[in-house]
Structures are given as structure tokens and as C-alpha cells.
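Hello,

Following up on my earlier ticket. Below are the two sequence lines again, exactly as submitted.
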Amino acid sequence: MTLAKPPLLADDDALVAQRSALATLYAERYGDFVALAGLTSGRRHSAEDLVQDAFAGAYRRTTPFRDLDTISGYVARSVINGARSEARRRRPTVELDPDHDLPAAVSAELSVQLLGDREVVRAALATLPPRQRECAVCHFQFGLSQTETAAVLGLRHGTVKTHLGRARRALVRALEEHT
Amino acid sequence: MSDQQQSADQRLAEAMASFGRDVSPTDEGWADVVSGRVVHGAEPGRPGPQRFVVGIAAALLVASLVITGAWIGSDDGPGRTVVPASDPAPTTATTTSTTTTSTIPVDPNAFTQACLDGLGVEYRMVPGDGGSIGFSPPASATDEQKAAFTEGVEECGDRLWPEPSPEEQAENVAEGERYTEELIACLVAAGIDAEAVPAGEGAWDIVTPELAHDDPELQSAMDRCTARADANAEARRAEAGDG
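Thanks for your patience. The regenerated structure is below:
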């Protein structure tokens, strides 16, 4: 008797491939994802939780991605969705960002000027409207193109360009004033 | 572009790129992802003293959620927007026109539906977890239609919860002070050495010199005291609404 080939073998292969891609993405860009979550939500601790949740959700996904190159965008969008949901649920007591208290302890390899600039940029980001901030972090920090940023945030390309232009002016102005 | 602006652009790029550089993944973290055991909580070993911040902006957000009883755009994964329906409805929201401000009864789901209809945005309503109702773009929506849907939901959210007036902002700052005073009094009564320090823009730092922020005693007291302060704040809002 000949056994038929299991019909889901192709999907199983795809699942193995995408989980392997997720593991690579986690190893190579975990810090970038945490920064993406932390800068958009303003909370460093929950940022790590948000990233873990997003990766766990993607890992549990049994529908194969059509293209492994889209996994990074999918996880980024999950992280941002998590940050948005958390912001809406947030109680009025929030933890102070540890970087604010312990810049040297967490960033020993960074120069003093860069540490100062980071704090200025972090503070300036916090004053931006939420969508501007998300666009700025996706593009300037996470390295997404304008088109990719539009896809991840579900915005029109023109809207992203407008948000990025305004955000960049505000952030540059903050740095110039800090000089 | 001036040299100064070019320099600031360069500094911006370097500063943004540096975020996350000092955060590394761990094998344990990946093992949690694989197993699905994602444990939330504070990182151990953080040195004290620690501070909590009572942010007026966050207080405003919570206030708006309490007032409206629900929220738009609680995203449930990519491409999905959920409006929880378990909250009591109809409830109230404030609408602002160029000349008047009025409070009207509104069901957040109905408001969203009518608002999206008014904007001409295509959507479908789908049941979500826990009896919630979700608004999603049509299954066959193009990327452009999905983008229009996202922007429409944001626009409707802004209409449902418009920016507070200067008078409302002043009242919210005063409410933040009352909230902070109650929180400190409760913590002190619980035996926690806590102090409120102004942090600007209506925010307050809650400083606890003797306890790290992840200390179980502090966490327990904070949970209890914020619950009490939340309840008192809600009672004050209800009283003001009745008046």
C-alpha cells in the first residue's frame, strides 16, 4: 500500500522556513524592535513585553507568509498595534524610563554627546503627535522607507511624507536648540 | 541647507540609529517566544531609588476612556480595529463645534458607524473576542482603501474625543494634583516612604527612595492606591457630570 503524501507538507515546510526567519530576525533586530516599541509607546519595560508578544504572535501564526521579506513589517506593525492598545489602556501611573536615570549604566559604549542627543531626541519625540512620532520612529530609527512606513502604519504615502517632514523639523530644531 | 542644520540632521540620524543598540536578545527570551510563555513584568535587579511618574496626559487619556466607556482602535493584530462592546452603552462623549461645546449621549459603536458612513469610508463590522465589535476594512479592500479606513477611524476617534479646551485642561491639571495627593497619602498610610515632585506640564514624579520600583511591597501598594485614586477620580467626574 502506498501512503499519500501529507497534503500540508508544503505548508509545514513554509512554517519551518518562516519560524527560522523569525529566529534570525529576533537575533539580529531585537534591539531595534525594542526601540521601536519604546519610542512609540514611551515605555521601555513594556517595550520588551510588546516585542515578545509580537514575536510570539507571529511564531504561533500557522498561515504561512506569502513572502518572508514581509515578516519584519508584520512584526513591526504588531509591535505598534500593541503600543497603541497599551496607550489606550494605560493607567495614569507610568514608570519612569530607566535611561532617564541610568544613561551611563545602559549605554556605556556611547559617547557623551550622543547620549545627550538621544535624550533630546527622546524628549522631542514624546512631544510629537502620535502618528508623527510613529512615522518618525519607523523611518528614522527602524530604517523603513517611506513606502514601507506607509504600509506598516496603514497610512497613505503622502500622509507619511507630511508627518515625516514635520517630525524631522521638530527633532532637528530640538537638537539645534540643545547645541 | 546650513552647516548647523546639516550637522543637526546628522546628529538626528546618529541618535535615532543608536536607540536599541544597547539592547540585546537572550536565548531565554527566544525560548519564551517559542513556548508562548511570554512573562510580563519588571526586570529584576534594577537599582533603587526608583520613581514613578503620574502623567497628566495619561490621566487625561484614562479620563476620556472612563467618560466614553469604550475606545476606538484597540488594534487586535495587524489590519484589525476593535471597539470593545462590554462597556455600558449608551454613554456620553463631548462634541465641539466652532461656537459651542455640548455633551450628548452616544454609543461609541454607533458613533463610529455613523462617522465612517459620513466620511464615505468602506468598512465591515465583525464580532470580536469577549463580545466586542470590530470595524475592519472590507475583505477585498485595496491598499488605498485600507489606508482610507485607518485614517477614517483615526478621524472618527478625534471627533469622539476632541482636544480639551483650555478650561478643561486647567481642570485636568487640578484633578492631576488631587489624584497625586490622594496617591501619596495612601502610599504613606501603607507605610511607603513616598513623595510627589513636580515634573512639569502637569506631571508628577512619585519618588520612593527606599524601594525599587519592582519591589513587591511597593507594587502591591501602588496597585491598591491607584485603584482607590482611580475610583475617587471617577466619583468626582460622575458628581461633576450630575451637576
